[in-house]
């Protein structure tokens, strides 16, 4: 295992799980799998990074203000917290997205850390060259992040057993996976990792 690898956990927040503002069907079923990945990569000294929607209450991203989505991921609310079953290490790097009223915050590459450093800068400082990506939602934030990572010359592994789609359109998540693979991402599952 190279120290140039990073596990990126995308938006595993309460609002996207059962009882949240924008629940994804059976979202919780992948959290134990993500926890397995966290343990695997953490014990191998890889960077562990988690993104979150961290929106202001008023943003053009929300349908109330002309956007496409119901209100979700509003900073400092219970819905914006990481799901309690997710076992993030104490030194996890947190990247917040969509913090300005005019920001969508889809891709992790649109986010910043607690010191206002861009996600790209965080990766460079940690010397990450290869990403393993899990979380929500396959056809939106996962796809945007994967495509941006490939555009920025990172090797990308899509953790097929640790992603979930919204499925507003039935085949959209499947098409998103095909596009990510066509652009250069690799698909793997937990059993594929070196033991």
UniProtKB/TrEMBL annotation:
Documented EC number(s): 3.5.1.19
Keyword Metal-binding appears in the UniProt entry: yes
Gene source species: Candidatus Kaiserbacteria bacterium GW2011_GWA2_49_19
Top-rank lineage group of the source organism: Bacteria
Coiled coil: none
Pathway: Cofactor biosynthesis; nicotinate biosynthesis; nicotinate from nicotinamide: step 1/1
Entry GO MF terms: metal ion binding; nicotinamidase activity
Family: Belongs to the isochorismatase family.
Family matches, as Gene3D superfamilies: Isochorismatase-like
Top-level enzyme category: hydrolase
Boundaries of every Isochorismatase-like domain copy: 7-181
Keyword Hydrolase: yes
Entries under InterPro entries matching the protein: Isochorismatase-like_dom (IPR000868), Isochorismatase-like_sf (IPR036380), Isochorismatase_Nicotinamidase (IPR052347)
SUPFAM superfamilies: Isochorismatase-like hydrolases
Name of the protein: nicotinamidase
A single BP term in Gene Ontology: pyridine nucleotide biosynthetic process
Keywords per UniProt: Hydrolase, Metal-binding, Pyridine nucleotide biosynthesis
Lineage, highest ranks first: Bacteria, Candidatus Kaiseribacteriota
């Amino acid at each position: 295992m190279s120290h140039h690898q990073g596990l990126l956990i995308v938006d595993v927040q309460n609002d996207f799980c059962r009882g949240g503002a924008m629940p994804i069907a059976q979202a919780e079923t992948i959290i134990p799998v993500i926890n397995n990945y966290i343990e695997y990569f953490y014990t191998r000294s890889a960077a562990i990074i988690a993104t979150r929607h961290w929106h202001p209450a008023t943003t053009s991203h929300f349908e109330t203000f002309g956007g496409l989505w119901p209100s979700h991921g509003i900073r400092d609310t219970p819905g914006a917290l990481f799901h309690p079953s997710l076992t993030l290490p104490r030194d996890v790097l947190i990247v917040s997205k969509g913090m300005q009223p005019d920001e969508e915050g889809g891709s992790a590459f649109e986010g910043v850390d607690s010191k206002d450093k861009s996600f790209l800068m965080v990766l460079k400082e940690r010397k990450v060259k290869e990403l393993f990506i899990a979380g929500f939602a396959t056809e939106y934030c996962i796809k945007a992040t994967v495509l941006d990572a490939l555009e920025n010359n990172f090797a990308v592994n899509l953790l097929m057993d640790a992603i979930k789609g919204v499925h507003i359109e039935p085949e959209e998540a499947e098409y998103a996976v095909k596009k990510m693979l066509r652009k250069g991402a690799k698909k793997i599952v937990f059993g594929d990792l070196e033991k």
